[in-house]
Known about the structure:
This protein is α/β, with parallel strands linked by helices. The chain has helices spanning 3-12, 19-29, 31-34, 39-45, 50-59, 65-77, 94-115, 118-130, 145-154, 168-172, 195-203, 238-260; strands at 133-137, 158-162, 179-183, 207-210, 224-225. The relative contact order is 0.13.
Amino acid sequence: MNILHNLISTYDNTDPSDIYHSVIKYIIQHLGEVQNATIYDLAELTSTSRTTIWRLTQKLGYQSYSEFKHELVNTIQQFTYFNRILPNEDTEDASGLVQEYFRQTHSGLDDLERAVDMAELNRVVDAIHNAQRVCFYLYGRFFAELPFQTNLAVDGKKTEMVVRSSDLPAHAETLDDSCFVFITTVEFSDTMDIRPVFKTAKERGAIIFLMSTDESRFIKYADFWIPSCPDGPPPVKGMVHAFKSNMYIDLINMLYRHKYIDRRD
């Protein structure tokens, strides 16, 4: 989850009477101005105090206002990489975008259906069952991980989710060989180098499921990944790939429940 997702999610889940709600509203509506604002400036602009701004940055998960503003500025400056349904949205006209969206969606579905290997799915399911902790390192929130986490909890697994890139390095240090971790990536962006996260998870013995295909630059760290058909079309990217990933997680979740929950004596 990038900082703009974080701000909007917190805003949506904060009571309108809460002081933080009004501060975040100002930030969202004046992003250009806030990029150049000191903590004292922002306090004055929002008719609050420096302490309120500092507490808000902590509530959002940042260690300091400087860290908060650095991530805000970086995300805005590099926004061309973020929030894209398709990675090449700036190279298509309107009708071309719609056609490309459907083309990639159909392509992703067909490729996944042809690539699914039941033996591999069962290996993933068994590895998850043998783990004590199942962690999700997600760029933003999907929709398949929540029912999956519910099934994991019912089966007695510890399950955690980390959605802010700045939290990943420290959390990776808590992993060990009893952990199974799903890690999603932004393959077409150079602004989020999470190689150290992969490296730490691997060194600490965690089983890594890469939420990408074998085309990924992080494939050398992965034990499992989203399958693709060797003779299929080029891999889909952007959020369309996220749909494909969700479907594969749904398949894992269904098999997990079928094998280890529903069939209990």
